[in-house]
Amino acid sequence: MADKIAFELVSPDRLLVSQDVDMVVIPGTEGDFGVLVGHQPMISTVRPGILEVQNAGAEPRRIFVNGGFAEVTGDRCAVMTEEAIPVADLKRADLEQRIRDAEEDIQNARSDLERHLVDLRLGTLREMLQVAA
Predict the structure, then answer these.
(1) Which residues face 26 on adjacent strands?
(2) DSSP assignment, residue 38?
(3) Which region among 4-8, 28-32, 85-89 has the lowest average model confidence (pLDDT)?
(4) Which of 6, 17, 49, 95 is the most buried (most CB within 10 A)?
């Protein structure tokens, strides 16, 4: 369709979404940006946050992505991410437990690198908790 953009959301092991959509709002590292058909070609890094897939007449589909890259052409948008979870599937109690576990992991870290990696994971978990039901 000429008024739709082909959108793909890809993780390392599978294609998660492949559909023609009206617009995709992506959490770029420089700020959120919307992609419509005819968008200027670009490549952007993606920060952990909410990716929103929009189609006229339907509720936006909200998906938490754990960073990655976005490639945009005039008629196509692809987002590659390590992890993508529908916002409706995020469970507050589970995330709170994962945050407690990560905080404990920071205390038990044996190196600055290990502490830094756990701290990055903790930041992502906190972002997820902000949007969880």
Answers:
(1) 33
(2) T
(3) 85-89
(4) 49
Whether domain 5-87 has CATH 2.60.15.10: the reply is yes
**Element housing 124 (H / E):** helix 112-131
DSSP-based three-state secondary structure for 123: helix
Domain boundaries, the chain: 5-87, 91-131
Q: How high is the pLDDT of residue 128?
A: 87
Residue 33 is encoded by which pair of tokens?
A: 């940006």
Which tokens belong to 124?
């992502």
Contacting residues for 33 by C-beta, under 8 A, at least 6 apart: 25, 26, 44
Written as one string, the DSSP assignment of 55-85 is: -TTSPPEEEEEEEEEEEE-SSEEEEE-S-EE
What tokens were used for 97?
Answer: 């437990």
